[in-house]
Amino acid sequence: MIILQSIGVVDRGSITFFEGELRSIFDTVKVRPAAKVPASAHVPERDQLDGATILQSLPAPEPGAGDALLGVIDEDLFVADLNFVFGLVYGSRAIISLARLRQEFYSLSPNQDLFRERALKEAVHELGHVFGLPHCSDRRCVMHFSNSISDTDFKGWMYCERCREMLEDSGVKASF
């Protein structure tokens, strides 16, 4: 089961989108009420949030209550030694940031379809890490590392055959 939780203010339409898409892939999705952004995560001199602080503030799924928690935030995240991250994983918890997935971040016209495609890729990618998948060398696989938005745009939103087999071998069922 995937537990989906917004962090701070996230458009309800985005959460509904994730709920439907992730349910079609992983079967069971439960939406948890929104969590507050921890004040300690704000780093004013960077105008960003510390992703590790936010991720570690999220409660891990209780045994039997869920396999993975996916937090969704609409603010820009970074971690030590990186200027930004699209997402991050810690144990059974993952978080994705929607900020840099929007065309508007790059001073371009909004494109809702492209935004949702990018967001789904990042969600599926981070959940792959929760389920034990490493980064993949196949540039089309959703598990390929995205160093930029163009990397995210290039790859697909599904796991390659090798990554699907690794998921199945670990007992995770994903439908595509």
Q: DSSP strand (E) fraction?
A: 15-25%
Mean pLDDT: 94
Number of strands: 9
The outline comes out as globular
Q: Given the helix and strand composition, which structural class is it? A: alpha/beta
Number of helices: 5
- Count of distinct structural domains: 1
Helix content: 25-40%
Set down the secondary structure blueprint.
Layout: E1 2-7, H1 12-26, E2 29-35, E3 42-43, E4 48-50, H2 51-57, E5 68-73, E6 77-79, E7 82-85, E8 87-90, E9 93-97, H3 112-130, H4 149-154, H5 161-169
Parallel strand pairs: 1-2, 1-5, 4-6, 5-9
Antiparallel strand pairs: 3-4, 6-7, 8-9
Helix pairs in contact: 1-3
Give an account of the 3D structure.
With 176 residues, the chain is α/β, with parallel strands linked by helices. It has a single domain (2-169), classed as Collagenase (Catalytic Domain) (3-Layer(aba) Sandwich), CATH 3.40.390.10. It is 32% helix and 23% strand. The protein contains 5 helices and 9 strands. The strands form 2 sheets. The chain has a 5-stranded mixed sheet, sandwiched between helices. Helix 1 packs across helix 3. The model has no long low-confidence stretch (mean pLDDT 94).
